[in-house]
Write a structure and sequence with these properties.
With 499 residues, the protein is mostly helical. The chain has helices spanning 4-21, 23-34, 38-90, 97-105, 112-131, 165-169, 190-213, 221-258, 261-325, 329-363, 366-400, 404-425, 433-467, 475-498; strands at 145-151, 176-182. It has a two-stranded antiparallel sheet with strand order 1-2. Helix 1 runs antiparallel to helix 3, helix 8 (221-258) packs antiparallel against helix 9 (261-325) and helix 9 runs antiparallel to helix 10. This is KASH domain-containing protein.
Length: 499
Amino acid sequence: MISAETVLLVGIIALTLWETTLTPRLTPAYVCASGSDKDSIMGDDLMQVVMTLTALMSLAFLCFIACIMVFGIWMLKNVLEDEVKRRGRDQTPQKSPTLEIRDQVGSKQVTSSELVPLDERLRNLTTQLTTAPPQVGAPVAKDAATASTTSSFVSSGNGHSPSSDSVISRTTYNVVSTSVTRTTTLAYTPAQYLQALRRLLAQISDARSGMELEDIVPVEEAGRQTYDASIKTLDQKVWDIQENLTDLESQKDDVILQANQEEAANIRSQMELLLQEWSRLSDAHSTKLKKWHKAMDHWRTLDSGSKEITSWLETAETKLSVARNSHSLDEANSLFKELEVHLRQQQNNVTRMNSAGEEILQSVSNLNGDKLREKLELINHRWKVLCAEVMARQRRTKESSVEPFEFTNEMDELFSWIDEAENILASSLRPDIPYLEALLEKVKDRADEIPQRQAHLVSINSSGAALVQSPKLTDEDRNNVHRDIDHLNDGWTKPQYLL
């Protein structure tokens, strides 16, 4: 509510503004009116009206501002009163245990001398529960345990000794209850921790034994599936061992703090041995997994490669049979050319299949590898027979279809080599050591090339003999071929003899 003092203050401010704004401005108007004409009076009246309206508007604005300030002060006052009341409630003192006791017993007579020993016992019990060491031995750690103590007393009109325990033990009135929190964090006692380490060590030893027993990869598909399942089981066992080891290792320091000197030494030595065995197990497990994955890759390569090559061999052998019995030379040549192209394409697959088979045969026993070895030998035999027949046909076709242009190029190349050799042999000698050394080096180079050039000469003679049988050549062409071959053989004799 707005008080009367506030309203009075606003009124005084308004009157003061009225006097200071209007009164000084009215007098000059009427003074001027007595000494001037009518027009001057009207102008002064108009000016006076404008100034009056301006003053009234200013007064209204000031009143509005004053009302806002009064309302704000009133709101602030209410907020401050509520805050003071709230803080007063929060700061109300709690009753002490002694006052609670007095309130509970009501009209019964309780003397201060009776309450003193009770308070002392309550404080001692609270201190003992707060500072008590955590109990170790539970298999699962508990985060909090609550201990509650209740004391009671009875008072009679005759009065009893305040220090008497019998009086407190016969009480029928609740006095006070208090809760004390204590924390236990250990899941093992030192003895239990040592037993857990030994059990884990036995599991590691058992896992390593299992790895050594299953080191041979089966050849049969069913055996490989069974072996793969055992690998997965072993992998899970190693994973469980690692989790248990991590858990035990994280509790080692806390357990050692609760252990005596002998138990602490045993724990350290047992943990060191356990870590060493785990390192061996982990290495063996990693090696075994890598070996198994590599073996599976080889088996996949072998299985897919053998199936693909076998299927292709069946198709190729059928085409080869058709080419052999075909009465059309063009059809036979087309089939042989197709087989020749496919042979080049399948060569890499055969190589990969044989390489994977060799890797597998090295990792299996001789008894288990016999069947696989026979399978590979059969595929390779069929491949070699097909290759031999296709390549033989290719060679015969090439020999029977010598092109004159290729024959001429081969002869020209050998003629050029013979001319260079004759020029080297006909070089003049002079007493110049570097010159003689360079000349000797050229002679040696030509001498080293003689076997290769000899084979080249034999090939040219064979091609020339086939070329003169071609029906495409005229008699004049045949005579030219014979003359060139004879000239080439005569020219070859001299460098061969001298070198």
